[in-house]
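Take the subject:
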Amino acid sequence: MTGLGGCVALLLVLAAGSGTTGEGEDSRPCEALQEEVCQGLGYHATLFPNLLNHKSQDLASEELLSFLPLIEAECSEVLREFLCTLYMPVCTNYGFHLPPCRSLCKQAREGCEQVLEETELRWPNKFDCTRFPEHHELMCVLTLNHSSVTTSTTSSPALTLPPAGTRTDLTPYPVAQQLTQCSSNVDCILERSVCRGGECVCEYPRTWGPSGCEDSQILGGQCTSNNQCTAVTPNSVCSDSLCTCLPPLTSYLNLACIHASVVGAMCYNNAQCRAVNKFSFCKFVVSEVVGACTCDPDQFIDAQGRCVPRLGGRCNKGDCPRQLGAASCQRGRDAVLKCFCRKKAVQRRGVCVLP
């Protein structure tokens, strides 16, 4: 496998063996793909429960096969790919799902809408394309069988990573050293450099750094330069000697930097939600796969969509909403700051009132 698909596959292998598992420590094992409809699409392992919360391949196959007439109608060349990545999701070496990208969903829907209308049917609500990530937000399946990105002759998933963002504080390295002309590897005097296309370059997955060719690192890995981080994870930098996401992005399973999510927005981990609202979490619709950001039980949503404390709820210093009346952020018996009624104020129906 070559091209982007090959790079991502290697990234997943590196992550699986790196010992830095983060939220993926409880990841479930992949299982062999059995459904015939999904054979020949370039992947051979799946993981359950799937994005529709089917617990097994048998249960998923039963529903998937109900769409067989639509697949056979060939209304969209990517419908089978979309349905298979949804019902029989691609399982990575790291042990988590790769969801279909939103563009794959839209392409499947647009191709089949006319056929559905002719039979007085509609695109199912559970296939709402806004449920799926944009290709620049999260690693997802952009296409399986029609990739113009990979150059391999074998069918393999074309996966996408978020595009590289603005990199800050990068040290300018001497280009002349990195691109020394060569005819063979012997001509490349820098350690871990090889001759490619008549020029000395760092052997992948190594990257150019202050001391020559350095090991690239996944999120959370030890680093000395930004290049080590961005070579693997776009929108990441080397901060305090560790690869980390550029704010306000947050890490997803140490494999991608994804956008933070407001209350009600789709999320894949708690960190996405807490990057916007400190006292919120990802309420999973499908366990450990996808959900929506929700305020913690001791908070409520204000008019600006922020999570703010109820009476007795956790707060930041001086951060009790006016809706609570005469309340202030005080340290409770458990040494945690919470919103309590001020001295002489009494609580009435969840509001502090002065006599």
Q: What stands out?
A: The longest helix spans residues 102-118. Residues 1-27, 146-178 have pLDDT under 50 and may be disordered. The first strand starts at residue 31 and ends at 32. Residues 345 and 354 are 4 Å apart (CA to CA).
